[in-house]
Amino acid sequence: MTAHHPDLLPNLPTLALPFRRRGGIGCAVHHRPVLSSTNTFLAGLARRGAPTGTVVLADHQTAGRGKYDRRWVSRPGESLLASVLLRPSRPLADLAQVTLVIAVAAAEAIARTTGLAPQIKWPNDLMVEGRKLSGILCEMVMTPEGDLDHIIAGIGINLAQARTDFPPELQAIATSISAETGRKVDRFELFTALIDRLDYRLSEWERLGFEPARHAWSVRSCTLGRPVILAAPHAPRQGIAEALGPDGALCLRDADGTLHSVIFGEIPLVATQATL
Ligand SMILES: O=C(O)CCCC[C@@H]1SC[C@@H]2NC(=O)N[C@@H]21
C-alpha cells in the first residue's frame, strides 16, 4: 500500500457546508476530512494566490501545530479545526492586533452557539473556569521587501472531549464545550457563527481600527487586573496586567511601579492557575 501525505489526498466527499459567502471571510471554503494541519494546507493555497477570506476546515489533523512549536493534538471529529487567510490593509504596526480581534470573534461565536461565556487569557487563549477551550495560532508571512504578504490564522476549539480524554498533563487545564455544557455542539453551526463573527470583527477592525475589539477583548479578559507571570520571548516578566493598550500591547506594571508594554509573549497555563 502506498502511504499518502494527508494534504495530497484527493478531495474526498465531506459534509456539505451550510453556506457560501460572496465576499469577506468564507468567500471560499475548503473542507477536508484529514489534513496534516489546516494552517499548512492554507499556506500552500496562499502561495498560489488564494484570496483574503479563504477558509480551510478539517475534520482531523495529523500534525496540528500550536504556539511556540508545540503540537495541537485532537482525535477525529472532536475539535473544530479551521484556518483563515487574511491579507489586511492595516499598517504593519497594527498587525499584532489581529490575533486579539480573532480571539474576540471566536469567543463571541462560542457564546452565541453554546451559551458559555469564554474569557480571554492574553493574548488569545479562550478559557472557561480557568481551563483552555480554544487556541489560536497566527502566522505572518512577509515579502522580501519587508511588507506583509499574508496572515494565516488557525483556530482550534475543543468540542467533544471528556476531561479524561485529554492527556494526563492537560486534564486540569483543558476543557471542551461538551465538558462544560453537558451537550454536544453542532460543529457546522459553530463554524458558521465563527465565520460570521470573524467577518464582522475583522471588517470592523479594517474600517474603524482596534478600539471596538479592544473594548470587547477587555470585557472578556481574565488577565486584566490580575498578577501574571509572562513567558515573554526575551525577558520573562511579572507584574499586574493593568490594561490592553490602544496598540494591542499588554500594559504590565512591575513591582518597581514601572509600566511595560508587551506585544509578544504568553501567560503559561499552569502559572495562570497557580497565580490567579
Ligand atoms: O497553541 C495554541 O494555543 C494555538 C493552537 C492552534 C491550533 C489550531 S487547530 C487549526 C489550526 N491548524 C493548526 O495546525 N493549528 C491551528
Secondary-structure blueprint:
Layout: E1 29-35, H1 38-47, E2 55-61, E3 79-86, H2 98-114, E4 119-121, E5 125-128, E6 131-142, E7 148-158, H3 177-181, H4 187-208, H5 211-220, E8 227-230, E9 237-244, E10 250-253, E11 259-262, H6 269-275
The protein binds biotin.
GO molecular function: biotin--[biotin carboxyl-carrier protein] ligase activity
EC number: 6.3.4.15
Catalytic activity: biotin + L-lysyl-[protein] + ATP = N(6)-biotinyl-L-lysyl-[protein] + AMP + diphosphate + H(+)
Q: How would you describe this structure to a colleague?
A:
Keywords: Biotin, Ligase. One of its GO terms (molecular function) is biotin--[biotin carboxyl-carrier protein] ligase activity. It catalyses: biotin + L-lysyl-[protein] + ATP = N(6)-biotinyl-L-lysyl-[protein] + AMP + diphosphate + H(+). The C terminus is likely disordered. The protein folds into two domains: 192 residues, BirA Bifunctional Protein, domain 2; 49 residues, SH3 type barrels (Roll), CATH 2.30.30.100. With 276 residues, it is an alpha+beta fold. 26% of the residues lie in helices and 26% in strands. The strands form two sheets. It has a seven-stranded mixed β-sheet with strand order 1-2-3-7-6-5-4, with helices on both faces. The protein has a four-stranded antiparallel β-sheet with strand order 8-9-10-11. It is built from six helices and eleven strands. Helix 2 runs antiparallel to helix 4. Bound molecules: biotin (BTN). The site of biotin has 20 residues, from helix 1, strand 3, strand 6 and strand 7. The site of biotin (BTN) has 20 residues, from helix 1, strand 3, strand 6 and strand 7.
